[in-house]
Amino acid sequence: MSLVDLRSDLLAGPTPEMIEAMIATARVPSSYGPREDQHVRELEALTAQTLGTEDALFFPTCTMANQAALMVHCRPGDFIIAETESHVAEFEAASTAGVSNVAVLRVTGVHGHLSPVQLAEVLDRSEDEAMRVSMVSLENTHNRAGGTVMPEGWQQQIESACRARGIAIHLDGARLWNAAAYAKCDPLALVRGADSVAVSLNKALGAPLGAMLCGSKAFIRNASRVRQMLGGNWRPAGIVAAPALVALKTMQKRIVDDHANARHLGTALASEHPWLSIDFDSLQTNIVLVKLRTKQMNAARLTKRLSEMGVLVVAYGDQYVRLVIYSGIGQDQIGKVLTAFSEISRTLTADYLAGS
Ligand SMILES: *Cc1c(COP(=O)(O)O)cnc(C)c1O
Fold this sequence. Notes:
Blueprint: E1 4-5, H1 16-27, H2 38-51, E2 55-59, H3 62-73, E3 79-83, H4 93-98, E4 103-107, H5 116-128, E5 133-139, H6 154-165, E6 168-173, H7 176-183, H8 187-191, E7 196-200, E8 211-215, H9 217-229, H10 238-250, H11 255-272, E9 276-277, E10 287-292, H12 299-308, E11 311-312, E12 314-316, E13 320-324, H13 331-353
Parallel strand pairs: 1-11, 3-4, 3-5, 5-6, 6-7
Antiparallel strand pairs: 2-8, 7-8, 9-10, 10-13, 12-13
Helix pairs in contact: 1-10, 2-10, 3-9, 11-13
Residues 61-63, 66, 87, 139, 143, 172, 174, 200, 211 line the site of pyridoxal-5'-phosphate.
């Protein structure tokens, strides 16, 4: 039984061209310094150019890239402002507190995004309470809210509020590529105004692993020092930089297909099964959040029953399951998922008739 694994877009595997690049790189002698390798240098230069920043630095994970940004922008005991369910506040909470020594002022945004009005309120409050806020963290697309894109114009307004107070803006753009595909714009348009941006090379683009942190030359000099502190000066890294370079060059334009597939899956599920619902306002990119509307089924049970049929999803709390679309998921896989849901639908009715 072949699995359809929709647990995360980090599962998007490398293309044959990326694998070729890895093999070719493995055959040539390695280089010594962390920024010496030709593929690493090319990857850093192309990322900086793609995002319109002065410089870029290659990281093993986006978590480490985010934390390095925090450590450059903040001093221990400082506050950052971040959306309640953002990756930095929620999934990196232990690193944000324990590694970067930064406290988070959490604000629950609109579909995952902090509005300029909310930001102004929390900035006023932090001044009243003598908190030192040194950074605002933005996340585009917002993972937990279902891959939602920041509304146009918000980042600019947030930027002017932050500039006036000398507060840095970091953009966690693990899925910036998806945001750009949705907004039909150049990714650099979504970075403008931020002091730093982290992007994943793995999610959406399908590089085997890796992330980039981008910003000014001075910022990257500091980030490079912090990366070393965190044990992230990985080398020789050519074997991972080479496929990442292919990913960056070839995979951006196909992301719209993932979004179309996600919408197709969501639409089919919502129209066929009255026991679930989907908020189409937040189904913008590649993440489908399915909400359960029946007492006969909770997220843990649905996850288990789907896995028995070879479909892997993630439960979010008791009421939601998350299905993530990426390059390896096409019509065949989506067909399998729909069949599995229909199968469950039938047993739901049978259970219901049996009075259970
Ligand atoms: C996945 C993710 C990260 C972390 O990426 P890793 O490479 O797994 O550390 C950071 N931010 C967001 C929004 C993510 O979705």
